[in-house]
Design brief:
Layout: H1 4-8, H2 25-34, H3 39-60, H4 71-91, H5 98-107, H6 111-121, H7 125-152, H8 156-169, H9 176-181, H10 196-233, H11 237-255, H12 257-277, H13 279-289, H14 296-302, H15 306-319, H16 330-337, H17 358-387, H18 390-406, H19 419-436
Main location: membrane
InterPro entries: O-antigen_ligase-rel_domated, WaaL-like
Domain O-antigen ligase-related: 223-375
Length: 450
């Protein structure tokens, strides 16, 4: 039997350093999202944030105290990056445009330290409050701005941005042709970057969860109505599906199934009213109704030319099954696979730029290898969720819902290998990983995380 005196004098095992994140990291995340109306500037913020994170990591090597991230968070963010980036690299081997594919892969290396930065931003409770709360405020402001545009015809935020650009450079943000052709709300992103619906729908969980926690069921319903109106008027039917999924995944916890069914019924009634009062919504619904037509042309018209694009994507998959035509090589490969060459397209002149569907984009541009990598990343992300405890799931829930609805495979999508949508998707992945696998300080003390 062990000597009790010996055990009494033994030193307790040393606990590992606490995980506190980095208190300045949320500023980079919020600046990046807030500047999406200027993609070039937002991209610069992303790159500078990645460089800053690398410097922070070098300095942290000499610090044995508080850590930026937990080991599982380091691992999962790195694995999710690899699942996204390795298909790019392998696709460049025999891509339609090898130089561009290699350039895309080289440029996208910056996403790895950026993902670490994002995960560090939500590694502490204060960081999560700042980051998630800041995202909720940004999207809330954009929603109010879009509602004002729906009422007055002008987005106050975009008007201010455009006026500032004219004062500085003498040029408008969008051309007269782009402004004249606009058929939906552009909000702060403007009439020449009509992605407001997709962005707000994907980031809406941060608003709904924040309002629900602070104002309860009534506040959640009011926020749902405001965001829902903007998503519908923004015109993207893909964003309608995305937002419906957000309501399904978050609403049952807030309302219960019976009230949630009532909410969806009210939403359908609102859609009927908007169909009668909004020309843009009426045109979208009228086009959607053509999908019931028996011929392929009617379906293609209802889907804005998507069936033609998807058939071309399947052709690319058949001709390049292993590693695809190369990341961002869809437009170069499209003419050779166009099932209707010489016919005027539903989207205008020129080739399709991407597959408009996640699975087909990955298969056509990065092949079976790319799809396997994406599936492996999804499986590991899901495994982390299933093994997490209730507290971890609760703190990661807004990011989880946002990521899940953004990559929902039975929907049409923006290009995931583009800078705009790829950056936002990886941002959501890192927010999910960092918040799910965060570890609080050992004893609740406030630690220096500069």
């Amino acid at each position: 039997m062990a000597d009790p005196v010996h055990w009494a004098g033994a030193r307790p095992p040393e606990l590992p350093p606490a995980i506190v994140g980095w208190r300045w990291a949320p500023a980079w995340i919020l600046a990046y999202v807030a500047l999406l109306f200027a993609p070039g500037i937002a991209e610069t913020v992303l790159s500078l944030g990645a460089i800053t994170m690398l410097v922070k990591l070098v300095l942290a090597r000499f610090n044995t105290g508080a850590r930026l991230l937990s080991d599982p968070a380091w691992a999962l963010t790195s694995v999710l990056f690899a699942a996204y980036w390795l298909p790019e690299l392998i696709s460049a081997i025999d891509a339609v445009d090898p130089a561009r594919a290699l350039r895309e892969a080289a440029v996208d290396l910056r996403y790895l330290p950026f993902l670490w930065l994002v995960a560090a931003a939500v590694a502490s409770a204060q960081g999560r409050r700042t980051t998630f709360g800041g995202l909720a405020i940004i999207v809330g402001v954009w929603t109010v701005d879009a509602l004002l545009q729906a009422i007055s015809g002008t987005s106050p935020l975009f008007f201010a941005i455009d006026s500032l650009k004219v004062a500085i450079s003498g040029h408008r943000t969008c051309s007269a042709e782009e402004i004249a052709a606009v058929d939906r709300l552009g909000g702060i992103l403007g009439p020449c970057n009509l992605k407001l619906g997709q962005v707000i729908a994907s980031f809406s969980p941060f608003v709904l969860y924040a309002v629900g926690r602070r104002f309860g069921r009534g506040g959640w319903i009011a926020a749902t109505a405001a965001v829902g109106i903007v998503v519908v008027l923004a015109g993207s039917r893909a964003s309608w599906i995305t937002f419906a999924l957000v309501l399904l995944l978050s609403g049952w916890r807030m309302l219960g199934w019976k009230r949630l069914l009532g909410l969806f019924a009210a939403g359908l009634l609102a859609l009927v009213i908007l169909n009668q009062t909004s020309t843009q919504v009426h045109q979208r619904l009228e086009r959607t109704a053509q999908i019931v037509g028996a011929d392929l042309a009617g379906v293609d018209t209802a889907l804005s030319g998507r069936t033609r694009i998807w058939r071309a994507a399947l052709c690319m998959v058949a001709e390049h099954p292993v590693n695809g035509v190369g990341a961002r090589g869809f437009r170069e490969a499209f003419p050779a696979c166009d099932p209707q060459p010489g016919v005027t397209t539903s989207w205008g002149y020129g080739p399709a730029l991407h597959a408009h569907q996640l699975l087909l984009e990955v298969l056509s541009e990065t092949g079976a290898f790319g799809l396997l990598m994406w599936l492996a990343g999804a499986a590991l992300a899901w495994r982390a969720w299933t093994f997490a405890d209730g507290a971890a799931r609760e703190r990661a829930r807004p990011a989880m819902v946002a990521l899940l609805v953004t990559v929902f495979p039975f929907n049409t999508h923006l290009a995931f290998y583009s800078t705009f949508w790829g950056g936002l998707t990886l941002l959501l992945a890192a927010l999910y990983t960092g918040s799910l696998l965060a570890q609080p300080p050992r004893d609740g003390t406030v630690l220096d995380s500069r």
